[in-house]
Structure formats: C-alpha cells, structure tokens
Amino acid sequence: MEPAFSRIDWGHTRSRIHHQVRATRFGSSGTSGPTALVADKWIRVLRTSLEPADGVEVTCADGPLWIVESMPA
Questions:
Q1: CA-to-CA distance for 71 and 55, rounded, in angstroms?
Q2: pLDDT tens digit string along 36-49?
Q3: Residue 64 near residue 56, CB atoms below 8 Å
Q4: Cβ proximity of 62 and 14 under 8 Å
Q5: Mapping DSSP to helix (H, G, I), strand (E, B) and coil, where does residue 49 land?
Q6: What does the alpha-carbon distance between residue 55 and residue 57 come to, in Å, rounded to a whole number?
Q7: Strands (E), the chain
Q8: Residue 1 has what pLDDT?
Q9: Is 2 exposed, middle or buried (0-12, 13-18, 19+ CB in 10 A)?
Q10: Short-list 58, 60, 59, 53, CA closest to 68
Q11: Taking the complete model, does pTM exceed 0.90, yes or no?
Q12: Which one has a higher pLDDT value, 5 or 23?
C-alpha cells in the first residue's frame, strides 16, 4: 500500500477512514493498522466503528468515528 495510506487524516470522511483501517488490518493479517494522532499521542488504529461504541470518539470531516481497538504506535 502507498505510504500515505498508513497515516489517518481526520479531514477525510468517517467512512473512508473506517475502510482504510479495515483494509490495512486485512492486508496485514490483523496485526497492524494506520497511525493517527489522538489526544496528542500517536497510536496504531486497529478497529473502528461507524456506530456509537465503547472506545475513543474522534471527529472526522463528516461526523464522529469510534476507535474501538488501538495500540501505541
């Protein structure tokens, strides 16, 4: 995948970011994900939800997205 695909840009739509996380995880057998800056910390995002869920709510270009699984980057 392209290097830009490995970093999340919260300026994109929540659907695009959700699919980016899924594609990255699927492409790496579930052991990796794109990195993102959340609350001044870099994390690796492993799973997200478009519906309200336990986790960290972030704001994308068109609304909220929930990070439900992550690890330090």
A1: 12
A2: 999 999 999 999 99
A3: no
A4: yes
A5: strand
A6: 6
A7: 35-38, 41-49, 56-60, 63-72
A8: 62
A9: exposed
A10: 53
A11: no
A12: 23
